[in-house]
Write a structure and sequence with these properties.
Rhopdopsin 7-helix transmembrane proteins; 0% strand; Arc Repressor Mutant, subunit A; mainly alpha
């Protein structure tokens, strides 16, 4: 191993700090009880940062020549970072958010990238003269990693937009709430790291790579102090967001109990949902509120959007008709409850009941 320059030793000390701090926090979150989605996602986040930091050490030591599979570390980290960031965002902004089977779809790209990269590494040769040859095994792995950066950028944009939509970046929130300030610092740090990584590829300079790692190290330190000061950090964000939503709410001055009764009467007694032309505006007018007030009520109180809310009533009515009128055609049932076509009826029925209308009727016949 060659002697390092003073600059390299300085960068390595920063990287070692980031690696050990990230690994230490990951271990602490793993042994902390009770384990939750929050702790698992933050564990993955710190693990990702640690992988990126330790890989720079392997890069300086040119260890990839002896252990080529090491180059999987940045590939896994880059593809995993976006989905993890999105899960942390969803959990922080929605107190009832649950990690379900659909959420696993977000982790399919990292699985595919890992398998493909491993196959490439085991079946191709190391490129000694390729750019960043001791960081990436060859140009194929470099291209896969570049694809990972675009995946991360897409997830980063979605997460940032979600935070912005939750009013987390307003002047009042940033000025008065340290947790919101921390979110801004973390997002800025990650964005800078991404930009510097891009500069690394464009200008072919490890200087920008070192700047990117320094930014990630600062993000790790910032997260460490945040979790130390706010052990239930996502809950602190949730409370801020809920408070701000109430302050900006369209439902100020609206009696929610009265609104709930009006909507229940319209849906259950008048069966307004059977009108295939029923819209958010129509239902709002009948309930005596604006469409913005009704939309907020459905999303915040009922926790369903308008189409899901209406279709739930339609499917419930359809189930009754299917059993009570076994000879009525499926298409006629669809029209009777407010659907415009058999295909949309079947899709909605399967979504709510996990089966088709025909199979449901057959299963409930005496």
């Amino acid at each position: 191993m060659e002697l390092f320059t003073g600059k390299q030793l300085f960068i390595l000390s920063i990287v070692f700090n980031g690696f050990f701090l990230g690994a230490l926090i990951s271990a602490a979150l793993l042994i902390r009880a009770p384990r939750s989605l929050q702790s698992w996602m933050f564990t993955l986040l710190f693990t990702i940062f640690s992988l990126l930091q330790i890989h720079y050490i392997f890069f300086q030591n040119q260890a990839i020549v002896r252990y080529p599979l090491i180059t999987l570390l940045p590939v896994i980290a880059i593809f995993l970072l976006g989905p993890v960031l999105l899960q942390i965002t969803n959990h922080a902004l929605n107190k009832v958010y649950q990690f379900n089977k659909k959420a696993w779809i977000h982790f399919v790209p990292v699985m595919l990238a890992t398998v493909v990269s491993a196959i490439v590494i085991l079946n191709t040769d190391f490129q000694q003269n390729a750019w960043l040859s001791h960081y990436y095994y060859n140009s194929a792995i470099l291209n896969i990693s570049c694809a990972g950066y675009f995946v991360f950028l897409a997830y980063f944009a979605v997460s940032t937009r979600k935070f912005a939509a939750a009013y987390l970046f307003t002047k009042e929130m940033i000025r008065d709430n340290p947790p919101a300030q921390a979110v801004l610092v973390i997002i800025a740090g990650m964005m800078l790291a991404f930009i510097f990584d891009g500069f690394t590829l464009v200008f072919r300079s490890t200087f920008f790579m070192e700047l990117a790692l320094t930014c990630l190290n600062l993000v790790i330190i910032c997260l460490f102090f945040i979790l130390f000061r706010y052990p239930e950090y996502p809950k602190a964000i949730q409370q801020m967001v809920e408070k701000e939503k109430k302050r900006r709410s369209y439902l100020k001055g609206v009696d929610l109990d009265v609104l709930e009764n009006k909507i229940s009467d319209l849906m259950e007694n008048n069966e307004i949902f059977t009108d295939e032309a029923l819209s958010l505006e129509t239902l709002a007018k009948e309930a005596g509120v604006s469409k913005h007030q009704l939309s907020e009520y459905l999303n915040q109180t009922v926790r369903e959007n308008f189409p899901t809310f209406v279709n739930r009533y339609r499917i419930q009515k359809a189930k009754e008709i299917l059993i009570q009128n076994p000879d009525q055609k499926i298409l006629a049932v669809a029209f009777d409850v407010g659907f415009k076509s058999k295909s949309t009826f079947n899709a909605a029925f399967s979504k709510f009941e996990g089966t088709t209308p025909a199979r449901y009727r057959k299963n409930h016949q005496n």
